[in-house]
Design a protein that fits this description.
Elements (H helix, E strand, L loop, with lengths): L5 E4 L6 E5 L2 E5 L14 H24 L2 E15 L4 E14 L2 H11 L3 H7 L14
Helix pairs in contact: 1-2
């Protein structure tokens, strides 16, 4: 598959290799949860995906418009709120810019941030299909 990411965990709790072709990163859990603290947690990786997608999308737009943007920063956090009927996850993205931007340009970049592919993917229903591959053959 074109976008196939391989995730592997071996015996060391809970260090996980995430690979795509020749590229790889580690995911893990903190020491207090039994991990080795060798990488970002899965939740942190999800926030990193959202933030990376947003800043890349804004940078592409600003470059196309030839706007003077020196730096785009997003601080992301998440909070899970559970109720009897459902669970709602709030992702907060605090965006800041460095450069020579007027108020209209900042507003436009803010709108563009929400048009990144990951933001759109997570706003719509997601079906996750899992199956077990028989490797004993």
């Amino acid at each position: 598959m074109a976008n196939e990411v391989q995730v592997t965990i071996e015996e060391e709790n809970y260090t996980t290799k995430v690979a795509y072709g020749d590229l790889s990163i580690l995911a893990d859990e903190p020491l207090d949860l039994g991990g080795q603290n060798k990488g970002l947690t899965p939740t942190q990786l999800l926030l990193a995906s959202i933030g990376s997608c947003k800043v890349i999308t804004m940078r592409m737009y600003a470059n196309r418009k030839q706007w003077d943007v020196k730096k785009i920063n997003i601080d992301l956090s998440s909070e899970v709120v559970k109720s009897d009927l459902q669970q709602t996850t709030y992702v907060r993205c605090h965006i800041s810019f460095e450069g020579n931007l007027d108020e209209d340009q900042i507003k436009r970049l803010y709108i563009i941030a929400d048009k990144c592919p990951i933001h759109k993917m997570l706003q719509h229903p997601i079906i996750i299909e899992s199956n077990v591959i028989d490797t004993t053959k």
